[in-house]
Amino acid sequence: MNEPIPLPGLSTGEDHAGASFSPIPTTTVTLSGGAAGHGRASGRARSADGADISLRHARRARPGRVGTNPEQLFAAGFAACHHRALSLVARQTALDPTGIPLVTTVAFGRDPRDGGYVLHVDLVVKWPGVAPDVADPLLEEADALCPYAKTVWQGTPATITFAP
User: Fold this and answer.
1) pLDDT digits (tens, 9 = 90+) for 112-159
2) CA distances from 67 to 17, 31, 55, 82, 86 (A)
3) How many Å apart are CA 54 and CA 40, to the nearest integer?
4) SS3 of residue 59 by DSSP
5) DSSP 31
6) In terms of pTM, does the model score above 0.70?
7) Alpha carbon distance 94, 24 (integer Å)
8) Distance (Å, whole) CA 15 – CA 129
9) CA 45 to CA 52: how far, in whole Å?
10) If DSSP codes are grouped into helix, strand and coil, which group holds residue 103?
């Protein structure tokens, strides 16, 4: 018999351990480049807990070649994290968050400012039975809580280290 998944608490304070950054979940993924020589087109990503992901470039995907692309992974992570934040604020106002599908589109393209690359994220929240004047402040609050949204809108601390 399937056990129900326990709901997280209604307070973000439960996860806070002080004035400095305190990791809650942490993951490590190792990526290899594959046949194309770079991970985006033919890479293999393996997480520390054993999840194995084959990466394929979206434009070069062919029938029968199993894999996903980084934008799909980012869209799934963004949607899942934002859904968690929205569920939290919805339950705090006694609204049921179970029927809230999020449609997240992540586009990878050229950055006209510097000729490099940039991601563009669009999130559409479908919330049946909830009026826009009720949903809008909750969407803003969830956006402020969601670390993926903070990363997209404000940037994120990152380090890059060479390890010979």
Assistant:
1) 999 999 889 999 999 999 999 999 999 999 999 999 999 888 888 888
2) 38, 14, 5, 24, 29
3) 10
4) helix
5) E
6) yes
7) 26
8) 31
9) 6
10) strand
Query: How do residues 25-76 score in pLDDT, each as one tens digit?
Result: 778 888 887 777 777 778 888 889 998 888 887 665 556 666 788 889 999 9
Q: Give the Cα separation of 77 and 146 in Å (integer).
A: 11
* Model pLDDT for residues 7-38, shown as the tens digit of each residue: 555 555 555 556 676 667 778 888 887 777 77
Q: What is the pLDDT of residue 67?
A: 74
Query: C-alpha distances in angstroms, 121 versus 84, 115, 117?
Result: 18, 19, 13
Q: Which of 73, 128, 129 is nearest to 104 (CA)?
A: 73
Hey, what are 66's tokens? 């199993």
Side chain identity at 152, as an amino acid letter? V
What does the DSSP 8-state code read for residue 38? Answer: S
**Element (H or E) spanning 29, and its range?**
strand 29-32
Domain ranges, ordered by start, for the chain: 11-68, 69-155
β-strands 52-54, 44-47: how paired?
antiparallel
The answer to whether the beta carbons of residues 139 and 86 sit under 8 Å apart is yes
CATH number of the structural domain 69-155:
3.30.300.20
Question: Can you tell me the distance from the alpha carbon of 81 to that of 142, in angstroms, rounded to the nearest whole number?
Answer: 10
